[in-house]
């Protein structure tokens, strides 16, 4: 598993914290897709694209973490890509369920609403939770795949 991480200016400080957390605690390769420095006028779309492209190299194994102020822009951008299942992870239960039920491969964190330690706990829970593969969950993912096939030509 590779972990790709990126943020915009509003998520920049939290991204640095989470990246350090990943290196120290998760011990999985974490690829930082920017920004390298704080830039108040950057666009979340640019960084979301880079992270998603990394995840798509192996969407069943790789994971992405995107961070912006509300999380909305990053989530919307990521979900424009076929094979991406991005979720806004604003608490532990939501993050765990997104993995167990929906096999989410991108976690989006709202930096305006989370303290760094809360965000790290959410990331840990999300990365530690496996897809449950219950029949009903797989049926739903299969339906999502059919929608993608129809709409992403």
From TrEMBL:
Entry's Gene Ontology molecular function annotations: ribose-5-phosphate isomerase activity
Pfam families xref list: LacAB_rpiB
GO biological process, one term: pentose-phosphate shunt, non-oxidative branch
Signal peptide (from-to): none
Catalytic center residues: 68 (proton acceptor), 101 (proton donor)
Source organism, top-level taxon: Bacteria
Similarity comment: Belongs to the LacAB/RpiB family.
PANTHER family reported in the protein's UniProt record: DNA DAMAGE-REPAIR_TOLERATION PROTEIN DRT102, RIBOSE-5-PHOSPHATE ISOMERASE B
Protein name: Ribose-5-phosphate isomerase
Organism: Candidatus Sungbacteria bacterium RIFCSPHIGHO2_02_FULL_51_29
């Amino acid at each position: 598993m590779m972990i790709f991480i990126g943020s915009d200016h509003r998520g920049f400080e939290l991204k640095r914290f989470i990246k350090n957390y990943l290196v120290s605690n998760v011990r999985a390769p974490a690829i930082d897709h920017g920004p390298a420095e704080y830039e108040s006028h950057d666009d979340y779309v640019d960084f979301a694209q880079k992270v998603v492209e990394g995840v798509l190299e192996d969407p069943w194994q790789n994971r992405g973490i995107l961070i912006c102020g509300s999380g909305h822009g990053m989530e919307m951008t990521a979900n424009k890509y076929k094979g991406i299942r991005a979720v806004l992870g604003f608490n532990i239960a939501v993050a765990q369920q997104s993995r167990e039920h929906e096999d989410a491969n991108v976690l989006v964190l709202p930096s305006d609403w989370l303290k760094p330690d809360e965000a790290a706990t959410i990331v840990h829970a999300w990365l530690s939770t496996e897809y449950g593969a219950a029949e009903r969950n797989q049926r739903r993912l299969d339906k999502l795949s059919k929608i993608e096939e129809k709409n992403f030509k």
